[in-house]
């Protein structure tokens, strides 16, 4: 199997030398790992058991990175990618193998992160994606002059992806317009980014705005329903259904994606939502608190404004960087149950390490919201010991 070289300059000058490799394992970022000159070498688009030749692209801090050139031995679970951009596009990581293997690598990656807990943990429950392609309702693209697509992390060049298979049908129509009619370059010269996303009224495009401008939403509608049901079922395991009033604090709530089903089903649950959303300030009377949870004064400000001195349940759904302040919030309000939802297992484990001696991990649930990529969603349920 032959892989074309890209005739492009690297961000850093480095001697481009051919190396021989044998892949021993997969890392949590979907890269094959080989040992080259007694150092780990990460090579994307490879699988355990494969051997071949690669070109060294970067070496730093005792590790190496290389770009696949040719394969001499291929893994039994390798398959031809359905996407013609896969070999060069950095957006997907597992389309060169079957979906069962992809789920196995993701589960293995999550177990790798969970090893940092020094307590017993339950088996990981896995919810596969309902479909592997055509699911994304939101995507960010980068442009440089007339070129638009994904940024190659090695070369810092734009890789055009006019036939991307991850997008929903509605977004694919908008993507086609960008590639077929370059008139957008008249108003968007030099470089920047744009975001294509679906709303209730149809597809929209925003140029050079922060990601998820106007409100965050999960990129996979079908699997978001699985996620919401998983959180709902965990709250249902609590005694909230036995007739007593329960208080629920939804941190990084957005529009209540994860808690709306709960309060609709059980009116005895008193919910308070907290998030940074200037456009929702006028909803504070509806138990929405506009607050930057990463501010050093966030907890003090919230305590002064909250009518409750304790909460029975937390739902925490932070961005990728996690929520280092969670321990302080948990110690202050002493919830009986915490449901932590994360798209970054590394920061999730970091945050929860501070709680696992006060709380017991009851359930770990991997929900594949991002098939084809190394990303996945994790739901961890903790109960007060």
Folded structure, characterized:
The chain is of the alpha/beta class and 385 residues long. It has three domains: 18-92, OB fold (Dihydrolipoamide Acetyltransferase, E2P) (Beta Barrel); 124-129 and 220-384, 3-Layer(aba) Sandwich (Rossmann fold); 138-207, no CATH class. Helix content is 19%, strand content 31%. The protein has seven helices and 18 strands. The chain has helices at residues 99-114, 169-180, 221-236, 260-265, 298-305, 326-333, 345-352, and strands spanning 18-26, 31-36, 39-44, 51-60, 63-73, 124-127, 138-144, 147-151, 158-160, 191-199, 202-207, 246-251, 269-275, 288-290, 313-316, 337-342, 359-367, 377-384. The strands form three sheets. It has an eight-stranded mixed sheet with strand order 6-17-18-16-15-12-13-14, with helices on both faces. A five-stranded mixed beta barrel has the order 1-2-3-5-4. β7 and β8 form a beta hairpin. The longest helix has 16 residues, at 99-114. The radius of gyration is 23 Å and the shape is globular. The N and C termini lie far apart (55 Å). Mean pLDDT is 91; it is low at 1-13.
Question: Short summary of the structure?
Answer:
The protein has 385 residues and is an alpha/beta fold. The protein has 7 helices and 18 strands.
Question: Superfamily at the CATH H level of the largest domain?
Answer: Vaccinia Virus protein VP39
Q: In angstroms, what is the radius of gyration?
A: 23 Å
- DSSP strand content: 25-35%
Tell me the number of helical segments per DSSP (H or I, 4 or more residues long).
Answer: 7
Number of domains: 3
Can you tell me the CATH architecture of the largest domain? Answer: 3-Layer(aba) Sandwich
Shape: globular
